[in-house]
Amino acid sequence: MGSMDMLSDRVPLIFEESRPGRTGAEVDQGEPSETRALELLGAELCRDTIAGFPELSEPQVLRHYLRLSRLNYAQALNFYPLGSCTMKYNPVVNDEIANLPGFAELHPAVPPAMAQGALELMARLEGALAEITGMDAVSLHPAAGAQGELTGLLIVRAWDRRRGGKRRKVIIPDTAHGTNPASCTLAGFEVVVARTGAHGYLEAAEIRRLLDDQTAALMVTNPNTLGIFEAEISAIAEALHQAGALLYLDGANLNALLGVAKPGAMGADIVHVNLHKTFSTPHGGGGPGAGPVAVTRELERFLPLPRLVRRADGLWDFDRERPDSIGRLRAYHGNFGMLVRAYAYILALGGEGLEQIGRLAILNANYVRHGLEKNFPVAKRAPSTHECVLTHDLEERAGVSTLDLAKRLLDYGFHPPTIYFPLVVPGALMIEPTETEARETLDVFIAAMNQIYREALEQPEMVKQAPHTTPVARVDEVTAARRPILRWTPSPDSTTKE
Ligand SMILES: Cc1ncc(COP(=O)(O)O)c(C=O)c1O
Prior knowledge:
CATH topology of the largest domain: Aspartate Aminotransferase, domain 2
Distance between the termini: 16 Å
CATH superfamily of the largest domain: Type I PLP-dependent aspartate aminotransferase-like (Major domain)
Number of strands: 12
Mean pLDDT: 93
Structural class: alpha/beta
Bound molecules: pyridoxal-5'-phosphate
Low-confidence stretches: 1-7
Oligomer: single chain
């Protein structure tokens, strides 16, 4: 096989391109690396078989990875309207700041006295997040939204136990993000499902109906996963507090609230925030993220260890002696590079800039909703916030499913929206444009969606076989999920591969 599999358009694996003895430029680093590794690690940690690295020339390696990168879809390439994910543009300046040697080369185990600048940055970010959420204290510790949820729920449990309670239930609406019930179960709670009202938000009457002396908290996302503001949140908070329970507000959709509303003012006791959504840090391939947790003064003592504190002499330090704390959830102090990026973003925008974000995110979602509503009506009539959840009648009219529409959108060069979520909306299309898209981009997207609607009626078979223009055609998603092949194993004759 040549360096490019011309017949199938498939980029060969780098191992397939390998030829024994082929190398790139060699930089003389003195001692052979194997000897150095043996010295540093000791023989017990070093394998005695060759790891089997591919052998290629420098241009081959460069071309290989460049070709692969061109097969990928990225926010930096085009519109990424994935609902519930806030795939906004991540400004390059964030990366530049995070790559400053003083931040990038700082070892997490360095003594606090030698990392005062980094700790000051963390303290300022904590302060900014407290201000934005309207809460009293923040921990930057959790590494993702889901870990923030677990942290928050462990705080609920610690708070309840400290009062001598044994409350075991957490109420969650039927629109909840999947991580919410998972985190509740992990934290040892039983999930009680609340039904969303006819207008697309939780009604206080439903929460009052479910509340009892076993309820530890309600966990609710605001705006919720229908993209609708929880209009009765203050009355719900009051009902919870009267019943001796807490309000956990999943702040993953904070993008819609920035500068417009504060969870603290809604009566929240605990909030987690996804920095990789609202504050433009990269989502990564499952990480590293950051899901800081903000709480009221009453709950501060339960926050994870270590706590960042200012000593009497003015220096920043870590306090590890907090008997009520839920303890450590991960190594070191959060994903520091993400904290630097988020802080750079907050500083670059300032208060007014952050306020613009919330307003523009809402404007863009409603612009898309309006442009599509003839063919893709909203699931609930209530006004949309930062995202809109749409439906369609193509399944009945043409046998074309939401998945088919999403696949066809790839042919138009767009990443598809989130589909089939939230679960309460059959065949849902969930679109979150974010504030970073220009009106022209939204217009092209709206035109593409409406064109696909017409195609689905006129040429349903063509739509059902989409995508037609991507490097990989429609994949067998069930087999890919259930039996993924994650590792290449060379076959004896080295021409066939797994
Ligand atoms: C509403 C909501 N809650 C929680 C999460 C979980 O966040 P993470 O993916 O960082 O674990 C998400 C993720 O998108 C979300 O949309």
